[in-house]
Each structure stands twice: as C-alpha cells, then as structure tokens.
TrEMBL record:
PROSITE patterns: CDP_ALCOHOL_P_TRANSF
Keyword check for Transmembrane helix: yes
Protein species of origin: Cohnella silvisoli
Catalytic activity: a CDP-1,2-diacyl-sn-glycerol + sn-glycerol 3-phosphate = a 1,2-diacyl-sn-glycero-3-phospho-(1'-sn-glycero-3'-phosphate) + CMP + H(+)
Annotated protein name in UniProt: CDP-diacylglycerol--glycerol-3-phosphate 3-phosphatidyltransferase
Length: 192
C-alpha cells in the first residue's frame, strides 16, 4: 500500500476518534477565557478534525506528484471525506450546534453526487471534482471549525459568523450539487 493510501486510511481511522471526543463528556472544567468557554474534549476533536481534513488535499497531492494514483485510492478518498464530514455533522446535531436539516442537506448532496459518479463509472466516465465542489468542501470545513470553536473569537465582537458560514455552506452545497447534475445530465437515464 502506497503512502497516499495510508494517509487516506489514517483519515478514516480518525473518524471514530474525532466523533468520540465530540460526544463524550469529560468530568473536567472547561477552558475558559472571560465569558468564552470550550470543553477540552471539543478542543481535541477540533485539532483532530483539522488534521484529518488537511490530509484530504495531501493524499491527492502525493498520489499525483509521485504518479501513484490507484483504484483503491480513488475509492477510499471520497469515502473517507464523506465519513468524516457525515460523522462530524451528525455529532454537531447531537451537540445542538447545528440544525438537523443542515446535516441532512449536506449529507444528501454528498450521496446524490456519489450516486451520479457511480453511474458515470458504469458508463466508463470519471467525474472529476468541480471548482464548486472544492469550494463547497472548503466552506463546509470552515463551518465545522467555527461551530467547534463556539464562534470564537467572533462572539466577543457579537458577530454571528457561525450563522453566516452555516448558510453559506448550505447554499454552496446545494449549488454545487445542482451544478454536478446539470453538467452531467447526459449520464442520467430518462427511461430504460
């Protein structure tokens, strides 16, 4: 197994670790700065999430640079992304930091585009990530980081950046999903 695939596997193995840190309640006083408070387990989960999310670009870069792109990597990379994002979004819903409807929209879009990619593979085509898909990922990661930071440092300025990034994430998620289907409508069978 090559280095890029190992990095992808690390991202998959980090999914339950991040989720456990988000959902467990440690019997430890939270980290407090003035009126701001954050639990230590949330800080650990945030750091692990940032590490896991940053490996997404790293594994692809290494695979292309070293010319070690494999079918296993093509399968595992998007799977790792979806597992990480879905797990954290569901945990955020459980923590009451995110509305369930937001998680449903984001997760549904991911699986709908995955289904379209599967149809494309059956037709012998590969759907590359679009620029909107890349922006969508960046905005979703930003949203998760802001939510895990409890809107720090913007809460001191009374700015609801958390709401702004949630809405931006929903809008770009929907737009990028529609964009994939419109650009690849020829792959969708109208009738058998």
């Amino acid at each position: 197994m090559n280095l890029a695939n190992r990095i992808t596997l690390v991202r998959i193995f980090l999914v339950p670790v991040v989720t456990i840190f988000l959902l467990i309640k440690l019997d430890v006083e939270p980290l407090t700065i003035g009126s701001y408070s954050i639990s230590y387990n949330q800080v650990f989960a945030l750091l692990l999430f940032i590490i896991a999310a940053s490996t997404d670009g790293l594994d692809g870069y290494i695979a292309r640079k070293r010319k070690i792109v494999t079918n296993l990597g093509k399968l595992l990379d998007p799977l790792a992304d979806k597992l990480l994002m879905a797990a954290v979004l569901i945990a955020l819903v459980e923590m009451e930091k995110l509305g369930a409807w937001v998680a449903i929209i984001i997760i549904s879009r991911e699986w709908a585009v995955t289904g379209l990619r599967q149809v494309a593979l059956l037709e012998g085509a590969v759907l590359a990530a679009s620029k909107w898909g890349k922006w969508k990922t960046a905005v979703q990661i930003t949203m998760i980081i802001v939510l895990l930071l409890n809107n720090f440092p913007f809460n001191f300025l009374d700015l609801r950046i958390d709401l702004i990034v949630v809405w931006a994430s929903v809008l770009i998620t929907v737009y990028s999903g529609v964009d994939y289907f419109v650009k690849n409508k020829n792959l969708i069978p109208v009738s058998d």
